[in-house]
């Protein structure tokens, strides 16, 4: 991961990221007993690299980024960064890959949403809290 990436101002997110960076792996860093992956995105306006730890949703070497923001009415800030700059770095364990994100819809989104809810069941509750369809990106 690049040392130039910025940590989140959100305390618990910053702590997760710092732990991953200190350990050099995402292993053992979890939310509610579920594994996470560390994404590095590029700011839509600033062009700065930003760390985004999210739940691990993976299938056959592809990853999903779920823009849930806990069911808030608005998308998380990183959503706009990924829309503008779809080249994303993914760290899963000690493995680091450069992948390209694309927002999915229809049957493909339904498939990845099912995988996301299996990986982190609270996503289903988050969807009930908001009128927006929670966006899902697939990275490959």
Automatic annotation (TrEMBL):
InterPro entries with a match to the protein in the record: F420H2_quin_Rdtase, Split_barrel_FMN-bd
Any matching Pfam family: F420H2_quin_red
Gene3D superfamilies: Electron Transport, Fmn-binding Protein, Chain A
Reaction it catalyzes: oxidized coenzyme F420-(gamma-L-Glu)(n) + a quinol + H(+) = reduced coenzyme F420-(gamma-L-Glu)(n) + a quinone
Family under the similarity heading: Belongs to the F420H(2)-dependent quinone reductase family.
Protein's name according to its UniProt entry: Nitroreductase
Protein's organism: Gordonia paraffinivorans NBRC 108238
């Amino acid at each position: 991961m690049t040392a130039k990436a910025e940590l989140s101002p959100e305390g618990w997110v910053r702590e997760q990221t710092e732990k991953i960076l200190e350990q050099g792996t995402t292993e053992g860093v979890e939310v509610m007993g579920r594994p996470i992956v560390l994404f590095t995105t590029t700011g839509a306006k600033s062009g700065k690299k930003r760390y985004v730890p999210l739940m691990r949703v993976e299938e056959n070497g592809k990853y999903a980024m779920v823009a849930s923001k806990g069911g808030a009415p608005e998308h998380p800030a990183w959503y706009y960064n990924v829309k503008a700059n779809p080249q994303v770095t993914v760290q899963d364990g000690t493995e680091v890959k450069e992948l390209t994100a694309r927002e999915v819809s229809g049957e493909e989104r339904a498939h990845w949403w099912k995988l996301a809810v299996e990986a982190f069941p609270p996503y289903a509750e988050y969807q009930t809290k908001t009128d927006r369809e929670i966006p899902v990106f697939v990275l490959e």
